[in-house]
Amino acid sequence: MSTEKQTHGFQAEVSRLLHLMIHSLYSNREIFLRELISNASDACDKLRFAALDQPELMADDSEPRITLRIDKQAGTLTIADNGIGMDEGEVIENLGTIARSGTEQFLASLSGDKKKDAQLIGQFGVGFYSAFIVADKVTVESRKAGSDQAVRWESDGQGEFSVETIERTERGTAVILHLRDDAKTFLDPFKVRQVVHQYSDHVAFPITLVSPAEEGKEEGEEKTETLNSATALWQRPRQEISDEEYQSFYKHISHDFQDALSWSHNKVEGKLEYTSLLYIPARAPFDLYHREANRGLKLYVQRVFIMDDAEQFLPQYLRFIKGVIDAPDLPLNVSRELLQDYGPVQKIRSALTKRVLQMLKKLGNDEEKYATFWSQFGQVLKEGIAEDRENQEAIAALLRFATSEKPDSVTTSLDDYLEHKPADQDKIYYLLADTPSAAQQSPHLEVFRKKGINVLLLSDPVDEWMVSYLDSYKDTKLVNAARGELDLETDSEKDNDHPLIQRLKDSLAEQVEAVRATGRLVDSPACLVLAEDQLGPQMRRMLEAAGQPVPENKPVLEVNLEHELLKSLEAVEEGDRFNDLAALLLDQAMLAEGQLPKDPAATARRMHQLFARAL
Ligand code: ADP
Known about the structure:
By secondary structure, the protein is α+β, with helices and mostly antiparallel strands. It has 4 domains: 6-231, Histidine kinase-like ATPase, C-terminal domain (Heat Shock Protein 90, 2-Layer Sandwich), CATH 3.30.565; 234-369, Ribosomal Protein S5, domain 2; 400-480, Rossmann fold (3-Layer(aba) Sandwich), CATH 3.40.50.11260; 499-529 and 554-614, Up-down Bundle (Four Helix Bundle (Hemerythrin (Met), subunit A)). The chain is built from 21 helices and 22 strands. The strands form 4 sheets. The protein has a 9-stranded mixed sheet. β4 (135-143) and β5 form a beta hairpin. α2 packs across α7 (189-200). The longest helix has 23 residues, at 31-53. It is elongated and about 110 Å long. It starts with 5 loop residues before the first strand and ends with a helix. 37% of the residues are buried. Adenosine-5'-diphosphate is lined by residues 39-40, 43, 81, 83-86, 94, 125, 127-129, 173, 255.
């Protein structure tokens, strides 16, 4: 039974991606071969997995392999596998759409600047569509394992593709690249060999190259050679694997085309045997914050591929780790549900978590690499402070902060902080703000600067939530510099019985919880302080955005009685003018926090009046 040829349009995102890919990846174009070989290798993995339950799928062809074929006359390079194959529906779905959520926004963020876009496309992972970097027409023929129907997909990458059913004796998929004139170099066996060596040597299935016979041989004769050793890289002893091999294996499993920052390869023996090879990427994928996105941990059991996103083996906050776990003692028919509460998996997870934290600690010795890591994944790692109490201290040691002493570099660790603090300082101080500059400018820092005490400046949206889980580090308490009463000794006695305090209290009774004389300020007239049990502004906004009820919050106003402004205010008589000035004092304290006064129009009116008098 065969259907007529049908034409379909690519999903708009695919057309966009194709266009960008062809233009921005040209100088990296040989990666197409790695991507197509990776897909072929995945297809072989998937067949082996499916055959665990249905051995008949293998039929009489049970040795998975990948075949590259050069046809000089036709100008084609074919990448074929005898893996799982695709039926018509899968071909249309897999090679015509992109199903990852967030794709549209991601593509909208691309700039049209080749260099920048090439970097960004790496975040996306290039995949099958990279074929069009070198081919002006791509033909895919596929027969799904267990089916006797085959399908041909064809496209010039210009917005449409055609699909028809065909006869095909071989199981699996062949991707036939009709090479562009400027990509004919991939018809040269020498070039193909070199690219496979460089990018795909470690693929666990044999890669065979079939090319026309060399000169002097008979016309029509072909040469067949195997290009790789076809052993799973992670099964080989560490000392035999070069850095280049580790990096190229990373790219094979991650579809990234930038090197990984670091990796850790371990074979654990004893009661519970397993091998792990884990990588830290240098760049976050665009969908790091999409819950349903695929993660990059592949699970193998007895070298048989089981699944692509074995998320049970690492906690959520380490979801950026890519790699392979081979656990030969797990049952081959292990399912996601079983993994969830399976004792041995929990043990491996706990060991792998510690291993990754160790690896990150080590990476911390390389300042430049660690800065890259921190800028890409620091926010995600912070989730671990709340999620993983058992490893909290190890995670906390990996955090990096800007500080009041070094506001422009996010490089200070808690250990650095403790090491450099004055001996008699018994707390770790931090300040929360919406932006780094708001933190740096905050009046709350005045007393700390005066006393030479460093303060951690936190301005990530997750920070308030994170520190609410981090009471102390190495037995030193963490204290919010803007909360409660500071017990830093002050030079002047705090005079809370001062008549001006009482007058301000009366005037601002509706807006504030209390008015106090401050020990925090040096140059500023007033600031806001959170009571011990109050939510900070970041948390309030987070809860409000999530539609949660948030209790009414009245701040505490602390005033600097030594300040000119307060001294002058003392001389103003009771009445509207005093009330307006008191209200302005509160408003400017809110502004300094990056908050909007409760009634901005009234603030503006009061300021106009003040201007009018002053001018
Ligand atoms: P990715 O591999 O990242 O999912 P690709 O664009 O490379 O994205 O491929 C899309 C899908 O097409 C794959 O997930 C797979 O299901 C299917 N596919 C691609 N190549 C093959 C192949 N050689 N054999 C079987 N399926 C394939």
